[in-house]
Amino acid sequence: MNQHLINLLQHAELNITDFAIHSRTDMNIRNRTFASEYVMSYHKSGKAKLRIGEEIYDVLPGTVIFIPPHLIHDIYKETDEEAIILWWHFTYKVERVLDVLPLFNIPYIYELKQTERFETVFDQFMASKQNTSALPATILHKAKSLELLYFLLDEALGYRDSKEISPAQQSFLGLLCQMIQHPEKSLSLTDMAENMHLNTAYVSSRFKELYGKSPIGMQRRLRIERAKALLISDQEMSVTRIAELLHFKEVTNFTRLFKKYVGMAPLQYRQLNLRSLT
C-alpha cells in the first residue's frame, strides 16, 4: 500500500456510534441515507436485495454491504426467510476532520471470505461492551472494533480497482500528510504551489476536489483540532502558549479563528469540556 495512505491510517480514529445483531423476516427500507456516518452490515444468513441508483445487487449469506454517507439506497427482502444481520455505524477520520475511507475506493457490496473468524470477533466485540466501566474491558472493546475494521477493509481492498496512484496524486497526498503530521507549520498557498511546481488556482481546486476542503481550510481545521486537544490534555497551558505552539502570530487571531470554527472562545471550550469530565 502507498506509504502516504499508511500514514493517514496511522493517524485515523475509529468511532463506532451504534451496532447490533438483528434477525429479520421482513425488510423494506427505501431511499435511506445517512448524514455523516458509514454503515457496514454483514449478512450471516438469509437473502436480500440492495439497490443503488439503477443497480440492484443480490445480498447473500457472507456478504458485506458498505454504505457511505449521503448515498441513497434501498434494501429489501422478497421472501419471509429469516435474515441475521450484524451491523455497525461508524466514522473513521483523521483529527475529526478528514474522512479517509473515500481514498480507498471500497465497493458497495462484496463477499467476506473469513466469515467464521469475523463472526467470532463481532461476538467478542458485542460482549466487551457489556462491562465498559472496567478499564480492561474498555481497551478490549476498542481493540475488537479495530480488528473488525481490519477484517472488513483487508478483504474490501482486494476487490477495488488496483490502479496506481499517479505522481500528481502522490504530491497532493504528500501535502495532506505534511499538514496532518505538522499542523503547526503554516504554509501559504503560494508555498504549496511552488513546492509542487503548479499554479495556486489548480492546487486549491484540485486539493478541494480530492479531500473536500481547500488547502488553507484543511490546515486551519487541523490546527484548531490540535488546539482543542491541547486545551483538554494540559489544563495548565495558557491560551497564549497554545497559540504560540501552533505558530499564530497573535493570540487574538487564534482566538478569533477558534471561535469561528468551534462557536466559543478557547477558555469557554476548556471549561465546558472539563465540567463534562467530572
Task: Describe what this molecule looks like in 3D.
- Keywords: DNA-binding, Transcription, Transcription regulation.
- GO terms for molecular function: DNA-binding transcription factor activity; sequence-specific DNA binding.
- Residues 170-272 form the HTH araC/xylS-type domain.
- It comes from Paenibacillus baekrokdamisoli.
- This is HTH araC/xylS-type domain-containing protein.
- This protein has 278 residues and is of the alpha+beta class.
- The protein has two domains: 3-156, Regulatory protein AraC (Jelly Rolls, Sandwich), CATH 2.60.120; 167-277, Arc Repressor Mutant, subunit A (Orthogonal Bundle).
- It is built from ten helices and ten strands.
- The protein has helices at residues 3-11, 115-128, 135-156, 167-181, 189-196, 200-211, 215-233, 239-245, 251-262, 266-277; strands at residues 12-24, 28-32, 38-45, 48-52, 55-59, 63-67, 73-76, 83-94, 98-99, 109-111.
- Strands 1, 3, 6, 8, 9 and 10 form a six-stranded antiparallel beta sheet that branches.
- Strand 8 (83-94) and strand 9 (98-99) form a beta hairpin.
- The radius of gyration is 22 Å and the shape is globular.
- The mean pLDDT is 92.
CATH architecture annotation name of the largest domain: Sandwich
Q: State the fourth-level CATH superfamily of the largest domain.
A: Regulatory protein AraC
Radius of gyration: 22 Å
Classification by helices and strands: alpha+beta
Task: Tell me roughly what share of residues is in helical segments.
Answer: 40-55%
Average the pLDDT over all residues and give the rounded result: 92
How would you spell out the order of helices and strands? Answer: HEEEEEEEEEEHHHHHHHHH
Enumerate the spans where pLDDT stays under 50 for 5 or more consecutive residues: none
Give the class-level CATH name of the largest domain: Mainly Beta
Q: How many beta strands in the DSSP annotation?
A: 10
